[in-house]
Amino acid sequence: MRVFGLLSQTYNANILHSYQRERVRELMAHARTHVPFYADMLGDAVTLDQAPILDRTHLFDYASQFVSAVLPRGQAARGLRYTAGTTGQPVRVVETNLTHDWQLALQLRDLEWSGLDPTRHLAEIVWCEGQGHSSNRWDPDLDELCATGPSSLLPITLDPLEQLEWLQRIQPNYLRTYPTNLELLVEVMGEAPPLSLTHLKSTVEPLSAQLRARAARHFHVFDTYASAELGLIASDCHLGRLHVHSESVVVEILNNRGLPCPVGEVGRVVITALHNYATPLIRYALGDRAAWGSPCRCGLPHPVIDRVAGRDLPFFTHPDGSRWSPASLVSAVHQIGSALQWQLQENSPGWVTLRVVSGEWTSQHTRRFEEAVARFYNVAAPRVELEVVRRLPLHAGRLRQVIACR
Ligand SMILES: [Zn+2]
């Protein structure tokens, strides 16, 4: 197929850029003509940097206006993808035969880059309905393209000790899960991980350098950057650097003034999906932050990104109604430093709950956090609740680290 042929070619950076420019031009022309939301929003824009930036709120508020009235010849709708994301606002994206083929092709590339053998046993601990299951193959769609081995699925909501018992029983070769879960799992594994397990695939959330280093003591660790709306965005090469799938997406990293960040500067991630003509996503801000990385020694022409833990923070509300970034509270939790994992929730203006997973949290830590909350809200006696828990509550399998009351 054409898609697989494209990915099998060896591009250089210049060819990738001109390929992206051509796809962007076609996509913007299509969106302006056939998608009501873009008919007004794109105006006279002809290049990407002239287009406005969208976020999840646009996709939620104008859901029906994002769907194309017609599709180019040869393309057909295949189904819908729903995602609640970390903000809790559900959004809907139409999948087509073209986006489906691209995702399959990228999955194959992802396996190739990380050196995984699809005939081995894959275990997944992710968000799923029901109790999980086992199968004699991986994804049935992938099975049409290459021989795949057995796979086993377990809900991420289970206790990490139960997860470990399951892994020891089924003896998989590879494990795919989210960093939030991996952190707890690595903790309970200690120095005795399941012997069969050789490779970890991290997905959905950013994998921190610290967690990668801890996991790498026992496993080969590979990260992927993906979202439900966009599919695979970037994958680790064999050297463990995250390369953008430039044939499928244009990734921009922008500073506060909306200008491109140089290598090393953290900014807002904005993505254009090049092949979705049914629900075009042009300059879509996922809410992630990242920086461009230095060129990778592996030789791939695909740019390297360093993801940064922590999405754009929702604003907290002061008792006088003004809204402020809770960055100083997040910083205070980091500085206290005793929480393996944490979640900060504003229940109402001036009232917060801090949940921590920690065996070492003391009243002194709580007092330091209360002082930070008092400074943040500028009140003498803030209302602070502290919950030491074994596991943080997940929303659709993912951790919402900072939750605002509105
Ligand atoms: Zn590389």
Describe the protein's architecture and organization.
By secondary structure, the chain is α/β, with parallel strands linked by helices. The strands form 4 sheets. Strands 1, 4, 5, 6, 7, 8, 9, 10, 11, 12, 13, 14 and 15 form a 13-stranded mixed β-sheet that branches. The chain has 11 helices and 21 strands. Helix 7 (160-170) crosses helix 8 and helix 10 (327-336) runs antiparallel to helix 11 (363-377). The model has no long low-confidence stretch (mean pLDDT 87). It has helices at 2-8, 13-34, 36-41, 56-61, 97-114, 140-143, 160-170, 179-189, 209-215, 327-336, 363-377; strands at residues 54-55, 77-83, 91-96, 122-126, 133-135, 151-155, 174-177, 199-202, 220-227, 231-236, 242-244, 249-254, 267-273, 284-292, 304-308, 316-317, 323-324, 341-348, 351-357, 383-388, 402-403. It has 2 domains: 1-312, 3-Layer(aba) Sandwich (Rossmann fold), CATH 3.40.50; 316-403, Alpha-Beta Plaits, CATH 3.30.70. Bound molecules: zinc ion. Residues 237, 239, 241, 243, 296, 298, 300 line the site of zinc ion.
In CATH, the topology of the largest domain is named Rossmann fold
What structural category arises from helix and sheet content?
A: alpha/beta
User: What is the CATH class of the largest domain?
Assistant: Alpha Beta
Q: N- to C-terminal separation?
A: 47 Å
Bound molecules: zinc ion
- The CATH H-level superfamily of the largest domain is ANL, N-terminal domain
- How would you classify the quaternary structure? single chain
Helix fraction, binned, reads 25-40%
From the alpha-carbon coordinates, what is the Rg to the nearest angstrom? 22 Å
